[in-house]
Amino acid sequence: MGSFNLAKMTLRSLVSKPATVRYPYEKRDLERLFPQMRGHVVNDIDVCILCGMCQRACPVGAITVDRKAGDWTIDPYRCVQCASCTHECPKDCLSMDVHCTEPATELSVFTMHKDMPAKPAAGAKAAGGAAAKPKRELTPEQQARVEAARKAAAAKKAAKAAQEASE
Ligand code: SF4
Ligand code: SF4
């Protein structure tokens, strides 16, 4: 019986399509197949307040927040996709995109910049300081992910509000 089953499985695998795909040349429709998959972290920088909670929550030190410089940086090759940062963010501007970080031949970090409003007391001092950095231009793909993250955060917020209202 065992040999018969083995022969059946072998024959079936000879005629059926492979279960794997030739990544990165072929990609699966992850949104449809694994909508809850944790691919990589996306930050909606327009909503981010550079509070640093995500940096403190990250167990592997993948996020660096420099409020003074207005920079939010993530090392995607250090991130272990635990999603802790997305749970700790007080503005719900962090989310997990289903797509993994693109394969690369060199390690790199990804920085997003935001001009924070200057404190009134420091205004006079800031006038003589360094010029503000220009806002980083996003690629259409990154922009689409930010839009998706924004929608997901709004839905999360609405669900939270609905849950609180029903309690
Ligand atoms: S926790 Fe959220 S708001 Fe705070 S720095 Fe991180 S991404 Fe920005
Ligand atoms: S998903 Fe986890 S490992 Fe990755 S940046 Fe967020 S807290 Fe750090």
TrEMBL record:
Region (Disordered): 120-152
Occurrences of domain 4Fe-4S ferredoxin-type (ranges): 39-68, 70-99
Biased composition (Low complexity): 120-132, 141-152
Alphabetical list of Gene3D superfamilies matching this protein: 3.30.70.3270
Alphabetized InterPro entries for the sequence: 4Fe4S_Fe-S-bd, 4Fe4S_Fe_S_CS, Fe-S_Ferredoxin
Gene Ontology molecular functions: 4 iron, 4 sulfur cluster binding; metal ion binding
Entry keywords, A to Z: 4Fe-4S, Iron, Iron-sulfur, Metal-binding
Superkingdom of source: Bacteria
Protein name: 4Fe-4S dicluster domain-containing protein
